[in-house]
């Protein structure tokens, strides 16, 4: 394997790791966004119920 081929393989491996890391961050971001949205809905429901029965 030439030095150029070795550099290409190392670059491919590094890019693969980068893509995996970005995918993991995106998945964590989706979970966080879902949790924040759920908290927002719960807050609105709480306010509506408080005004209705309070």
Structure commentary:
The structure is a single chain. The mean pLDDT is about 90. The chain contains one helix and no strands. By secondary structure, it is mainly α. The chain is rod-shaped, with a radius of gyration of 23 Å. The longest helix has about 50 residues, at about 5-54.
Brief overview:
The protein is an all-alpha fold. The protein contains one helix and no strands.
List keywords for this structure.
single chain; 54 residues; mainly alpha; 1 helix
Order of helices and strands: H
Please describe the biggest sheet, giving its number of strands, its sense, and whether it closes into a barrel. none
In round numbers, the mean pLDDT is 92
Query: Which strand-content bin applies to the residues?
Result: under 5%
Low-confidence stretches: none
- Taken from the alpha-carbon principal axes, the silhouette is rod-shaped
Structural class: mainly alpha
Tally of separate helices: 1
Based on CA atoms alone, the radius of gyration comes out at 23 Å
Q: In angstroms, what separates the terminal alpha carbons?
A: 76 Å
Give the total of beta strands: 0
Helix content: over 70%
Topology, please?
Blueprint lengths: L2 H51 L1
């Amino acid at each position: 394997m030439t030095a150029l081929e070795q550099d290409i393989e190392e670059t491919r491996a590094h890019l693969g790791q980068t893509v995996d890391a970005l995918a993991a961050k995106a998945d964590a971001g989706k979970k966080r966004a879902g949790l924040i949205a759920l908290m927002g809905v719960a807050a609105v429901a709480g306010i509506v119920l408080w005004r209705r029965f309070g």
